[in-house]
Predict the 3D structure of the following.
Amino acid sequence: MSGERAEKSPRPENQTSVFVKRKRTFTLAFLAVAALFVISALVTDYNVIAGFESIPKAVVWIVKNLVPDERAWSRLPNILAKLAETALLSVAVTVCAAVCAFFFGLLGTRTTKINPWIGRGVRIVASFFRNVPDVVWAILLLFSFGQNILTGFFALFFVTFGLLTRTFIETIDEVSADCVEALQATGATYMQTVFQGIIPSSIAEIISWILYMIETNIRSSTLIGVLTATGIGYLFDLYYKRLDYGSASLVVVSIVVLVIAIELVSNQIRKVIM
Amino acid sequence: MPILEFQKVSKSYDSKSKALTDVSFAVEEGEFVSIIGPSGSGKSTILRCINRLVDATQGAIVFDGQDITRANKKEIRQIRKKTGMIFQHYNLVDRLSVVENVLHGRLGHKSAMAGVVGYYTEQEKEQAFQIIAKLGLTEQAYKRCDELSGGQKQRVGIARSIMQGPRLILCDEPIASLDPNSSKVIMDHLRNINQTMDITCIFNLHQVDVAIKYSKRIIGLTLGRIVYDGPPDQLDKATIYEIYQSNEGELITDVG
């Protein structure tokens, strides 16, 4: 028996083997990515070797210019004040946007939508707000509000509102479809179902998303501040244009520290509420 | 007068196929009825037509003397108040405690605002704890529902539906996700409720043996039509094969 070849098990006939298919897909994908790389390198005149060679030079420049000096440290109180302003703004924006997004999102979910057309409309509006970049919002709003903290507020508000509406719709559908059915079956009203069923079952995910958006908004508000001449972004822009690279980099470092700190705190909060 | 009557009820979800075709039956107050049939035969649709989670396309459904297919939004809530529902996946708010989930049964009876903020009277809380004790969940009353076992969750589901003070309880596959021990506990509780509180119970069941053992009447459904309606002792093998459209020896109930 041992010398004999084992008999082949039957396999589907007249169909390409799954294994062959997988290999083919993988090879094609690899070739496509390689081709894309070569084409874009040619179009943009990108030289791979020169690119990597310039890294050490960049490091030297960074060390020479971007390490905060005496003068930069003396500006720390000013930087921290602006940083606090930016952080508070982004908390305010995120919370306002989240409340609006939650109730707007209710109209867009499968489980709680009032009618399918409104549901579709809600999702289109949310996508629109989200897919216009915050910088574009800021530039557009500059015309109406000028260089003002409100401009930054609304620019961040629109994007946060759009993004949170989309995610809340998905969260609500995922988490609370079952209990919504049950509460409706007891004769509860729409608002009772929302407050007794949807909010308790999705609040942890919602808070988690709000925390994430606060982090994101602190980062984005830096760039928007450059445009609207407010907050930490303005300070960065000011130092940078004065060629005071040390101070500018202290601004960046302080933002990074703040974002990391908020991330750590958020993770702790998430652990507690989940 | 029957508490519930289906009169030539049809339902189609799309223009091509019908989920229910001319379904007619009547249920007397206090009955314990099981509906059996293969997946997709329309069992869930029947139950959901009764509390208007699904709207029948044709025919009339008379519940407690009222044609519910014509009910407006406010009347639908009144009907739902009188009908409890128990689900295969329990459908509890997992992050809330047992007693809060049980109190949800009162939402239909409360003013809109009191329900929104979750304000319950001392009397309602007392009643909730009483029902919880009856179902043997006192120890778990303050626990979050995601800490419970499947059988315990389903008991919370039953408690919630009793809390409504219903005339009728609809049970949609109540034991389909439970092990045999918990299944027996759940079925015994439901039979007990049916007998002591005189609440009419309508079941969807996959387990033919359970249906035969517990119910006094079985309705067999195939492709949206009723093919059997009678007591369990007259439900012979041939009829079961007809309901499930299969041949002898092909069903799990044939074992043993």
Notes: The longest strand of chain B covers residues 4-11. DSSP finds nine helices and ten strands in chain B. The longest helix of chain B spans residues 180-196. The radius of gyration of chain B is 18 Å.
